[in-house]
Write a structure and sequence with these properties.
heterodimer, A: alpha/beta, 2 domains, 9 helices, B: 2 domains
Chain lengths: 238, 354
């Protein structure tokens, strides 16, 4: 069963065709990685899915519903959630308040407190809960934002370079976290450059190049594909 | 009952400075002094204090929209003026009988809020943000000032109320409470003082509860990172609009009380200087905290008045210097900086004692 379906999605910025007739189907329950060289249109595709950009043409279907015209917050209500590339936490507020803001529309009172505690433990940020989020290390900010994103209990989690700036150990731990979430039923679409991470978690991989779907398959198929190796080396048209 | 208790618990929280018995003891003391003060003072001085209090509402409106919400409105005076003129037009036409002045107060504030709904809708849903929001709101208040300034001719009237151009509208009745026997007229001394003090305490406490509620959480979240707030499922523009309208109503309340206090309102109340001054009070006090805003506004206003008496030309220059110093020394506000510093010392002392 497909959870997310992109149909002939197009987006122009002036003369630049950043998303060129993209068709992409995400199966419910899979971890899908989106890779491609810089400027391939990966982040733009995320913004289209999230409703921050409107497509020039094409449709976005989520759980069978056409959400192309919905505003961002309404898409979140349908079961989408995102962790941005640059950690998008509320820098001036405490770690605890960050999580409270994420959780308060679902939980109240003592139940809210319990949920915050559970999430702090899950993220390993218990001792940092009164800390101002802007003072956290880069990795901790990434995790805090992942925590906020998953606190919505989304059906589809979008991760834009979740391991950027992380050490190999942190990257591996993040991979395990993603697998744990997936085991709990969450579908994941991740933009990632770190091939070790992709190898660790991905069920399927899509390669985006010049705004188009260039290749799709398992990680082994993608790695074996000479055309993919060529575009990463900048020799696509050679 | 539990709902009421939960509401009072919101008087303290991460969004407001001041908590615990020490803070509320001090609050009660200040309130008690404020209540007793007219007994030991003369009518003129009490009236002057009312004048200071009147401005605190517009300062709080800016604190809410700018300090908590992160949207700099340069035109809170537009709502101030609209409400002031509305009160004048309503009461000059319909008089002060049967408690109508009190209804007019509410209606004037509602008219200002309604104007904010329209203006705010186009701004926030038109995705105007940052410095452009400041420019649009400033343009609106200056346009209103220009417009009202050219209404000197007798053809500019609404019913019996002449708009009077740059001289402004005057002689509207003061607030009057109907009372068996003789109605109580709240002139700009002790009577008005208690009303304004009551409103001030109410608004201050209500805003504390609001900002420490889940609504307040969303408002500061939008200030910190609107994209993240939207991606947590919050309709950012709706929250911004609601905050803007509440702020406009507070600015409007300032305008009505000012009009009632002096029984006049002029276009210059919406002009450049008038629009800039609240920004200075709020910035100097501490825009992201209600208590700092109240204290900062009262202190700066009193200093400004003292300076005006001794040399009016320098008072405005001094305001500019004060703003520059604040930005350099304590960008979050002098009063807020001082309160945080005191708080740190207090917690260190209690730690040592414990």
């Amino acid at each position: 069963m497909s959870l997310l379906e992109l149909r002939k999605l197009n987006k122009h910025f002036g003369g630049l065709h950043v998303t060129n007739s993209v068709d992409l189907t995400l199966r419910a329950g899979e971890i899908h990685c989106l890779i491609g060289p810089n400027g391939a249109g990966k982040s733009t595709l995320f913004r289209l899915i999230l409703g921050e950009h409107r497509p020039g043409s094409g449709d976005i279907l989520f759980a069978g519903e056409n959400i192309t015209a919905l505003k961002s917050f309404a898409r979140i209500h349908r079961g989408l959630s995102v962790k941005f590339q640059v950690p998008g936490v509320f820098k001036g507020l405490s770690v605890r308040q960050n999580l409270e803001i994420a959780l308060q529309s679902r939980h109240r009172g003592g139940e809210l407190e319990a949920e915050i505690g559970r999430l702090l433990a899950f993220l390993g940020l218990e001792s940092e809960q009164t800390q101002i989020a802007g003072n956290l290390s880069h990795g901790q900010k990434q995790w805090l934002e992942i925590g906020m994103a998953i606190s919505l209990k989304p059906r589809l989690l979008l991760l834009d370079e979740p391991t950027a700036g992380m050490s190999p150990e942190e990257t591996h731990m993040t991979g395990e976290m993603v697998q744990r979430l997936n085991a709990g039923g969450m579908t994941v679409l991740a933009i990632e450059h770190d091939m070790a991470f992709v190898r660790q978690v991905a069920h399927r991989v899509t390669v985006l190049h010049l705004g188009q779907v260039f290749a799709q398959g398992s990680i082994d198929e993608i790695v074996a594909d000479e055309r993919v190796a060529a575009i990463y080396l900048g020799q696509a048209h050679a | 009952m539990t709902g009421l208790l939960a509401m009072f618990r919101r008087l303290e929280g991460p969004q407001t400075v001041g908590r615990g018995p020490a803070f509320w003891g001090l609050f009660a003391l200040v309130l008690a002094v404020a209540l007793a003060y007219p007994l030991f003072s003369d009518g003129y001085t009490v009236g002057n204090t009312v004048y200071f209090f009147v401005w605190v509402f517009i300062a709080l409106s800016l604190c809410l929209i700018w300090g908590y919400g992160g949207s700099l409105s340069f035109g809170q005076t537009a709502f101030f003026g609209i409400a002031g003129y509305s009160y004048g037009i309503l009461t000059i036409n319909f008089g002060s009988g049967y408690g109508f002045t009190l209804l007019a107060l509410v209606m004037a504030v509602a008219i200002a809020a309604l104007f904010a709904v329209l203006l705010g809708y186009f701004m926030f849903f038109g995705r105007i943000a940052g410095v452009f929001l400041g420019i649009v709101t400033l343009a609106v208040t200056l346009m209103l000032e220009r417009f009202m300034a050219q209404t000197a001719g007798p053809e500019w009237h609404i019913g019996a109320a002449r708009l009077n151009g740059f001289n402004g509208m005057s002689a509207m009745p003061p607030l009057t409470i109907p009372w068996p026997g003789e109605p109580i007229v709240l002139f700009a001394d002790v009577g008005l003082y208690y009303l304004v003090l009551g409103l001030l305490a109410f608004v201050y406490l209500a805003l504390r509860i609001l900002m420490n509620s889940s609504f307040g959480n969303v408002i500061v979240a939008i200030r910190e990172n609107p994209e993240r707030a939207e991606m947590l499922g919050y309709d950012v523009r709706k929250y911004q609009l609601i905050t803007f309208v509440i702020g406009a109503a507070l600015a409007g309340l300032s305008g009505v009380l000012y009009t009632v206090w002096g029984q006049y309102i002029t276009p210059s109340s919406m002009g450049m200087t008038a629009a800039a001054l609240p920004l200075i009070w709020v910035a100097v006090g501490g825009r992201s905290d209600l208590t700092s805003t109240v204290i900062g506004t009262l202190v700066v206003l009193a200093a400004f008045q003292a300076l005006t008496i001794y040399g009016s030309q320098y008072a405005l220059v001094f305001m500019g210097v004060l703003l520059v110093l604040t930005v350099l020394i304590a960008p979050n506000g002098l009063v807020l900086g001082a309160m945080n510093w005191l708080g740190r010392i207090a917690s260190r002392l209690t730690q040592r004692a414990g």
